[in-house]
Design brief:
Number of domains: 1
Helix content: 40-55%
Number of strands: 5
Number of helices: 15
Structural class: alpha/beta
Order of helices and strands: EHEHEHEHHHHHHEHHHHHH
Length: 311
Amino acid sequence: MRQYGPGHPLVFNHIPKTAGTSLGAALAQALQPQVAVQGIDTSLFGGYDDVDAVRPSMRGYIFLSPDDLPADATLVAGHIAPGTTSVRYPGADHITVLRVPQVRLLSQWLHSRSVSELSLRHWGPAGDAFRAGWRPLRDYLQHRKIAPSLDNTITRFLAFPHPLLERTSFIEERDDDELLAAARDRLDAFAYVNVIENRGFIDELSGWLGAELPQTQLNERTSVPPRKRPDLAAELDPTTRELLDHRCRIDARLWAHVAGRVVPDKAPAALLAEAVDGAVERYAVMLQKPYDASVVRRVAERVYELRARLR
């Protein structure tokens, strides 16, 4: 197994909604790190960035600069961009995994719809970034205050802190190629990269690491509260689907760059289309399942929802 010590950790730069929670847990189980770091940096902050309003219990997981990261880390796994971690740990091995961007974005929207006021009670005004997901999909995709989470998020995460990236603006098409090149250069410097559509990626990562990782599963949402369940077919009308593809246009090129290398027996375009169709079918089934929260949880969610309305 590769050896990771203080200041030279294994860094898993976790792109949101790419099965990273499960993968991070698998890495921790395999490595048994003495100092494990989890959290987020500012790479995907939008307009809801009032960090001072976040409860102290959560504030410690937000790293505003590379120097905020512990120097003695042995495993770093979080929504922390390589532009942050490579400054703090220049000798570390960086790894990441990509996901078909349209599926990643749909998963994020559905996840936001499952988040309740109870879950958001620690985040103050920053919780509005999740509440934005309670809007119809087309409105959500046009919500500028969370642009980094919607608009070519994979590219933004990898290219951060590129000067062309702004927190509350969508990327101009004239800047696509420059940002793609910046993200690709950063990605090509990683020690290990894969896509979750490659069914063998856990075995391949285990081989690279020199340690067997437990098989991981997608950290998919299993249910959504009835009041927030969308009609997925209606939400994905042709105009909205076109907008979804536009929000993923650079990411799709970046994903294809990796997929063509790690899944050489299938054309990236075919693999992408298959993944999107499969995800839509899977999510449609999920939205028909009974809500799986306990009675106590449901009561608490209702109480916090009523409090929010009164405010």
